[in-house]
Amino acid sequence: MIAKSAEALINEQKSHFLIPAERVANVFENNHLDHAFLVLTKIGYSKIPVLDKNQHFKGLISLSMITESMLGLNGIDPSNLSKRQVAEVMQIDVPVVNKENDIEDILHLLIDQPFLVVVNSDNVFIGIITRRELMKSINYMVHELEKQYDVILKKSK
Ligand code: AMP
Q: CDD domains recorded for this chain (predicted)?
């Protein structure tokens, strides 16, 4: 359990730390890898969500997954990129969160991931929560905690 006061203050910023789907770069599962390669290279993010045509979340694709698919027996073979689809190489074992997950779950999951995918109950992609955005809320919380709550040291060291 995390401190209720900390949780309340972080939750005040909840609307700020979700980056909504319309602002998140994505590719479709049936896009070819050359398209995904261009998108990732242009936007400068190393990993982005993969969706189906109905906006369901399907997985994540990164530049390294794409470059690995270029490796052939005789070195790098970029011709694979126009033949293979994103669904063939994307990562599918991805933790997702929804409105049932609290801040504690999100904090735990963000230890190992730079961002978390948020979906609704039908697995429709809602947006992402990045470590960066959550850090802004934690920064707010540590500055506000003693202004808004009485924090008492229970045991001196
Ligand atoms: P940040 O914490 O802002 O550095 O973002 C962490 C990761 O989240 C990035 O490396 C991307 O993989 C992903 N990400 C952040 N913002 C976006 C976005 N607008 N579109 C797609 N992916 C994003």
A: CBS_pair_bac
Q: Which residues of 30-50 are buried (b: 16+ CB within 10 A; e: fewer)?
A: ebbbbbbbebbeeeebebbbb
Atom of ligand 1 nearest to the CA of 132: 2
Residue nearest (by alpha carbon) to ligand 1 atom 16: 24
Whole-model pTM?
0.91
Instruction: Tell me the two tokens of residue 153.
Output: 């040291």
For the stretch 118-143, pLDDT in tens is: 999 999 999 999 999 999 999 999 99
Pairing of β 96-97 and β 115-119: parallel
* Beta carbons of 58 and 27 less than 8 angstroms apart: no
DSSP assignment of 30-44: TSBHHHHHHHHHHH-
The residue among 109, 104, 141, 151 whose CA lies nearest residue 16 is: 141
- Mutation to probe ligand 1, out of 63, 65, 106, 115 (largest number of atoms < 8 A from CB): 115
**78-119 per-position pLDDT tens digit:** 888 999 999 999 999 999 999 889 999 999 999 999 999 999
